[in-house]
Amino acid sequence: MKQLYKNILLSVKHEEKNVRQKSKSTIEEAYHMVSFLRKLLSDLKRQIAKSGFATVDEEIAFFKTVKPEILGKLIYYNRLVRLEVISAERYELIQAYYSEQIKLLNKEYKKHLECSDFYWYYRSGRSDKDLSYFRLGNINFLDGVDSFFFEVDLEFSTYYDYKVAQIIAMDYLCSHFLTIINQKDTTYTSVSSTSESGSFSWTDSKNALIELIYALHAAGSVSNGRTGLRKLSKLFEELFEVNLGDIHHAFHQMKFRAGEKTSYLLFLKNSLEQYMDREL
Q1: What is the tens place of the pLDDT at every residue in 46-98?
Q2: Boundaries of every domain in the chain
Q3: Distance between CA atoms of residues 38 and 45, nearest Å
Q4: HSE-up of residue 66 (Cα within 13 Å, Cβ side)
Q5: Helix-strand-coil percent breakdown of the chain, rounded to 5?
């Protein structure tokens, strides 16, 4: 069953990969994936109604990992379909729009998810309460549940599988918004095209490079963290022939970003995962 669950999730990734290559726009891709994911959930519901689960572990795995991933992506793509289409030529307008979307998402996150004990249970990777959270019928109505739960199919939902799906969907949305902002960023550093053969150029924003430098320093990834920030930044300045200016001031500004503080690192994570998916 573990392999079956893995194959189900792989089928979703393959479908995303195929439709991304064929679709002409994000909206077209989102429409397709909404239809695909709805059908997949419907098929799984019928299969479970017919055969059930062989073991408790299978049931927990399905409602903790499989269904939330599919439902989370369904929520994500449905949200993309509903987003207002932006056709502004000026980057400032695009940036303002998606920056506002991140602020709204952050408020929604804090209001509905981060304040709950379950959110931190899931984020910390715990499993000690899985029997309560991810088995059918184990709902304690005395604790109070969101009103939506009374409208769902109790034979295909544990209540908390939807909570996990919400977390996953919001993670995807945040990553999507930040990816667009980073792709549209026009404040690139530049190196003369006549640079000698073999030199490198940094083609993203200066803030992105500063964020990367601080991350490497914080993680102790260069010389076990013994290299100071000043020397590390100088190394990158010489490597890419850029002037980063006052990196400490830039880093201070990052700490007060609305929404995701490490936007470039999240963008890197998303880009790498998409690259891995293309290699499947």
Answers
A1: 999 899 999 999 999 999 999 999 999 999 999 888 775 554 344 455 666 66
A2: 2-184, 206-265
A3: 11
A4: 25
A5: 70, 0, 30
For residue 154, CA distances in Å to 36, 112, 136, 224, 277 come to: 23, 21, 7, 52, 33
Rounded Cα distance, 52 and 69, in Å: 20
Give the tokens for residue 123. Answer: 């984020």
How far apart are alpha carbons 129 and 164 in whole angstroms? Answer: 14
The C-alpha atoms of residue 80 and residue 72 are separated, in whole angstroms, by 12
- What six digits make up the tokens of 84? 């207002």
Cα radius of gyration rounded to whole Å, the chain? 22
| pLDDT, tens digit, 9 for 90 and up, residues 113-125 | 666 788 888 877 8
* Matching residue, tokens 């880093």: 251
- The residue type found at 147 is S
Is 0.85 surpassed by the pTM of this model? no
